[in-house]
Structure prediction request, 159 residues.
Amino acid sequence: MYRIGNGIDFHRLVLEPFRPLILGGVELETEFALLGHSDADIVLHSIGDAILGAMAEGDIGDHFPDTDPSLKGMDSKDIIVKCRELMKANQYTISNVDVTIVSEKPKISPYRLEIRKSLAELLNLELNQVSLKATTMEGMGSLGRSEGMMVMSSVLLEK
Ligand SMILES: [Zn+2]
Prediction:
């Protein structure tokens, strides 16, 4: 049995040299950062939503409400840990993950392999099961003005 899921997430991008920018568990060397209640790892948030979506288990806001003060600055890897527990309980494994980052800045390509390796480790997958793509808005709209970042993820689960 196969289940497909998709997740999408947006975070505001700011110039904040002392706040880390973390994508898929990898810290980028950049003066930019993403705002958020947690560590704002937008890649892990979209993957989490995709996994939960595939199982019809709600979204990450249900499991990790941003009104919960104890979750402030939370390591988003905890979201993936929770998703893996739910997949195990429901006897699902991931067939593949495909992630697309939409952002003008910073440049993702130098970090692409490192982020894929990090995701493969977090999700307990082989590297060839994890795809990461990056594109820009060609300068159009708010994302084109680097006011934020968007990430879309698709996952296929099987049991
Ligand atoms: Zn998020």
Notes: The CA atoms of residues 8 and 152 lie 4 Å apart.
